[in-house]
Amino acid sequence: MYIFYVSLQKVVNYKNETIMNDSQRKLGIIAGGGVIPQLLINYCKEKKQPYFVLAIEGNADRAFFDTSVPHQWIRIGQAGTGFKRFCEEGVKDVVMIGTIHRPTFADLVPDLRTTAFFAKIGLKALGDDGILRALIKEIEAEKMKVIGIHEVMPQLLVQEGCLAKAKPDKQALADIVRGTEVALCLGELDVGQSVVVQQGLVLGVEGIEGTDELIKRCGGYRRKGDGGVLVKLRKPNQDMRIDLPTIGVKTIENAYKSGLRGVAVHAGNALIVDEPEVIKLANKYKMFVIGINPGEIIQ
Predict the structure, then answer these.
(1) What does pLDDT average to over the chain?
(2) H-helix or E-strand containing 219?
(3) Domain ranges of the chain
(4) β partners of residue 20
(5) Using CA atoms, how far apart are residues 111 and 79, in angstroms rounded to an integer?
(6) Residue 122 in 3-state DSSP?
(7) How do 17-20 and 11-14 pair as beta strands?
(8) Does position 178 have pLDDT exceeding 80, yes or no?
(9) Which distant-in-sequence residues (6+ apart) come within 8 Å of 10 by Cβ?
(10) pLDDT tens digit string along 14-42?
(11) CATH 3.40.140.80 fits domain 157-297
């Protein structure tokens, strides 16, 4: 599962130049699923920031795209079509944001530009990050900039420390350490961001199914006794502009249903959507939510 991010910031350094933000620079948004695309669209409306959205069919929520939102629907395989539309719209900055589910064959039928793109990146397509890094280069070759949503909406970043009332006990802390070790190894291999650990046992690691499905799957492997924990980290050396780990209300709901006691997420390197509601739900279920620094967890 891909999660794509990009945004507009006030001052950015790009190719050793300082570029000042112009409120008239049009923002291009490549929107997948989830609510974060809507948050960014609402931000643009509030700030009167010109923008145009490429909504990915089968992923972006159609409820977000009424006549008040300038947009075009495209398939995953129509990157070339999308780049052309951005150029026509005068887009200067691009945002890739939202979940992208495993595409169907029809989704993948490429236009000519996309065919050339995949021919050029070759074996890089074996990993999520390889594709995304190559895509950034392709976008920036069109004289557009790609930057991270955390730079324009820093309030989405997870803060370090306990966010809810509950705190992890000794066993939970040990499980967090174990999960952190495994998650970092997964990240090095560009496999996934999330791990579920209970009483020192790894119940599951994230693959292509994504975090929510991982949590649900691990519910069936739950052992007796204290529940496990979800650990979700940014991959080592992962570009902060793309695919940041994200948690929200759904994460907490699924974790509770699967018998987990809490969630540990990468402080300053992950996003939390609708934090007040996440904390409210965690307090209701007496679960902990903690922002961690992997470098301090593993000594």
Answers:
(1) 84
(2) helix 211-219
(3) 2-151, 157-297
(4) 11
(5) 7
(6) helix
(7) antiparallel
(8) yes
(9) 20, 21
(10) 333 333 345 578 999 999 888 999 999 99
(11) yes
